[in-house]
From TrEMBL:
This is Bifunctional sterol desaturase/short chain dehydrogenase. The chain crosses the membrane at residues 6-23, 73-92, 98-116. InterPro entries: NAD(P)-bd_dom_sf, SDR_fam. Keywords: Membrane, Transmembrane, Transmembrane helix. The keyword Nucleus does not apply. Pfam families: adh_short (PF00106).
Length: 408
């Protein structure tokens, strides 16, 4: 009984912190859509330059009084309400009811920090305002927790996204953990079924799409039964270097091209499968990663690689499996120290020219990919096979640990 009560009380303490964090993020979101609140929150957005230095110490101090302190007081109110609900309903025993106030104590630290910054107390900002510190970004945008790189995007990538303050939970639920609005995105394999579907979804999210195809033709997509021309560049496997100038201007590169020789196992089929499915993508990836230099590029540039479900499951096409698995393993190795986010697209069988008997439709798959990317899934699994949802994360985790242990 003692352990059960303590476990419940501990869970309540953690939930109380989660509640006030959710309140903070919803308050932040509301401050961007409700003008009376934005009049206060707007002070916060007036402060920082792109290098996160402050434009004015006076404005910085005022912003803490007008935005940070009111926000923390709202968190505190809901923390008190939560604690009262827990205590009144006897959810925990009297000996542990004090733990229901954990969220309030947690919130008070934010209130005191805002007051200290508002008063201009020396070093208060360095100690209590860690997501707004200057300097080179040392890590990728946080996945589960907000860091400087993640929060920078709210200020200078898209103020209508990246609302979270500590945990990214609310952004992931709302689909605001990655903004595609205005992003310059290049898609290889653009003339294929999935490539066209991806470009359509990305265009509808406000992205500026460039189609990369091996076919000398201008591509278009259909939106509301109207053809929309897409900026199209023709390239060929083995000539990836010619895309370097384009990659300098691109925010997101989607490596989606591939070939399936099915049952062929001739030397030519082996060479072609690896050249198209593996080596071409690796070369593109490395060329793109060379363009990631500045803080802005570290925060906004990404690579999405379609490695397919063949990484962990048979595709009934041995060379397709072997070449895709190799590509997938290299991506896993490379993203242990990559300067930008690299996402994997782990896709089950969808109907296309490569797989005419696919079960899923390419438009549906593309919609799921974009939706999960906006929720900041780094491994995007879209399949009807439940085994993949179990085996792939295990494979990816163990392989990542192995690569980190035995590479420099």
């Amino acid at each position: 009984m003692f352990y059960n009560s303590l476990i419940v009380a501990g869970a309540i303490a953690l939930i109380s912190i989660l509640v006030v964090e959710i309140v903070r993020d919803l308050y932040h979101f509301l401050a961007h859509v409700w003008q009376p609140l934005y009049r206060l929150h707007g002070w916060h957005h007036r402060i920082f330059k792109p290098d996160l230095s402050v434009k004015s110490e006076e404005i910085y101090r005022q912003a803490n009084w007008y935005n940070d302190l009111p926000e923390s007081l709202v968190m505190l109110i809901f923390g008190v309400i939560f604690a009262q609900v827990v205590i009144i309903n006897g959810i925990v025993s009297e000996n542990y009811q004090w733990l229901a106030w954990t969220g309030c104590v947690y919130t008070i630290t934010y209130s005191l920090g805002a007051i200290a910054r508002g008063l201009g107390i020396p070093y208060a900002d360095a100690i209590t305002d860690v997501t707004h510190r200057q300097g080179e970004f040392q890590s990728l945008p946080g996945n589960l927790f907000v860091n400087r790189t993640y929060h920078w995007r709210h200020h200078f990538d898209d103020q209508d996204a990246y609302f979270c303050g500590t945990l990214t939970l609310v952004d992931r639920i709302m689909g605001t953990a990655l903004s595609l609005k205005g992003k310059k995105i290049a898609v290889t394999g653009a003339s294929g079924t999935l490539g066209e579907a991806l470009m359509t979804q990305l265009h509808q999210k406000g992205a500026k799409v460039t189609a990369l195809t091996s076919k000398p033709q201008e591509l278009s997509i259909m939106v509301d039964n109207q053809p929309i021309p897409i900026n199209t560049l023709t390239w060929a496997v083995g000539r990836e270097e010619e895309l370097k100038e384009l990659f300098e201007k691109i925010d997101i590169l989607i490596i989606n091209h591939g070939i399936n020789v099915h049952g062929d196992k001739s030397p030519g089929a082996i060479a072609t499968s690896y050249q198209v499915n593996t080596f071409s993508g690796i070369k593109m990836m490395e060329l793109f990663l060379e363009t990631v230099q500045t803080n802005r590029q570290k925060a906004t540039k990404e690579i999405w690689v379609n490695t397919s479900e063949a990484e962990v499951n048979p595709a009934f096409s041995p060379l397709y499996e072997l070449s895709k698995r190799t590509m997938g393993d290299i991506v896993t190795l490379r993203r242990t120290n990559a300067p930008c986010v690299i996402r994997k697209l782990i896709l089950g069988p969808f109907k296309s020219n490569l797989n005419p008997i696919g079960v899923m439709s390419a438009p549906w798959v593309a919609k799921q990919i974009v939706s999960l990317a906006q929720r900041d899934f780094r491994d995007i699994i879209v399949t009807i096979n439940p085994i993949t949802y179990i085996f792939f994360p295990i494979k990816e985790f163990t392989q990542t640990v192995y690569f980190k242990l035995f590479t420099k």
